[in-house]
Amino acid sequence: MTEALTERLAAIVGASQVSTDPDVLGGRSVDYTGRYRGHAAVLVRPGSAEEVAAVLTACRDAGVSVTVQGGRTSLVAGTVPEHDDVLLSTERLREIDEVDTVERRVHVGAGVTLAEVQRAATAAGLVFGVDLAARDSATVGGMASTNAGGLRTVCYGNMGEQVLGLDVVLPDGSVVHRHSQVRSDNTGYDLASLFVGAEGTLGVITGLDLRLHPTPRQRVTAICGYADLDALIATARLFRDMDGIAALELIDARASALTAEHAGVAAPVEGAWKLLIELAGDTDLTDRLAEALSEADLCGEPAVGIDGAAQQRLWQVREAVADVLGVYGPPLKFDVSLPLSSITAFAAESAELVAEHAPDAIPVLFGHVGEGNLHLNIVRCTLSGEREHALYTAMMALIDRHDGNVSSEHGVGTRKREYVSMSRTDADIAAMRAVKAAFDPTGYLNPAVLFG
């Protein structure tokens, strides 16, 4: 990193928005889990799409790599720099336009957090379709870049299904505004979809038009306990295609034990496996819930919440899991998508694999079972270096053997790039590389992500 480039960046965004402080850069070069660290030379915080374009042009001309950062909640080291990069933060892109309640949409900056979008939607009598545990820090630009999923995916779909338009700065410094006020628009390539899930390798998202949804008048939430995982999967299969399904969340016994011990949140039902079910709609769905559960093989009666306070208490059983995962240090995380028919075997075999590689570790399984999207967290995992890599590779191979996808909603980042071939053919990867080369011939933008 040359002093001349740092001065040029300061001239673009202002000296106060550029930092070379080692402590600042050190804090920005570690991933959300705390397991992976990188190296950066300077942090720059542009305040507009035009400033982003000027920053990218300056870095490209200087031959310097750029890593884009939003809320830095990536769980696959997607924002960890590897080349003494310039860190380009979108945190100052924070505008929120007035909600269009007629068309049910809102335009926001990429640095706006999920929680802020949710509050704006709620104030307008609407709801935003994606929800994550990291809602207070995850930014919508990063969520679009990784096509984030979350707690409501079974109802509303992933982040890509909420994106109606984008402002994107391309690696050559040009700015693309892909917007349309009509719901059906087939004029040319669907460029917005190209950048959703690209993990910042093709351009920097600076603004988004987001779809909002009507707020359901009625909700009913339940937690059911099961002694047998197959019985839980049978219930999940029944509910996932049901009209009004709003959430389907699996929690294993280890997760329940951790939340009870360290967060004081105990599950209100017995059983080694818990399933949180939520139905939402314009009418009372309690009877539909009861009818669907009447034949389920439960451990006792389900806990049901009809009013908001009771529903919030039940949701805390699921959301508290994220709060306790780091109680023994940074967990080793796996984000996996599996056919429902493979989940029971995977749960057993993954536990055996962890016991083989890290006998003192605790495998915790939970996630969005409606989509087969599970989060396996290896808590109290002290492995590092080659031993950690050996467990990670063995787990990826196990996922592959069960016809799963090595990344469901967290993206590839840097952590999973060597395993992409398990879920994509050589022709797929070659096509993705060709797209990357077309947009970014020198490969300076997010160079560590996806391909490495």
From TrEMBL:
Alphabetical GO biological process terms: respiratory electron transport chain
Molecular function, one GO term: FAD binding
E.C. number: 1.-.-.-
Domain of life: Bacteria
Family annotation (PROSITE patterns): FAD_PCMH
Keywords linked to the UniProt accession: FAD, Flavoprotein, Oxidoreductase
Cofactor: FAD
Residues of the FAD-binding PCMH-type domain: 36-215
Pfam families associated with the record: FAD-oxidase_C, FAD_binding_4
InterPro entries given in the database record: FAD-bd_oxidored_4_C, FAD-bd_PCMH, FAD-bd_PCMH-like_sf, FAD-bd_PCMH_sub1, FAD-bd_PCMH_sub2, FAD-linked_Oxase-like_C, FAD-oxidored/transferase_4, Oxid_FAD_bind_N
Alphabetical list of PANTHER family matching this protein: D-2-HYDROXYGLUTARATE DEHYDROGENASE, MITOCHONDRIAL
Family: Belongs to the FAD-binding oxidoreductase/transferase type 4 family.
Name of this protein: Putative FAD-linked oxidoreductase
Record organism: Mycolicibacterium chlorophenolicum
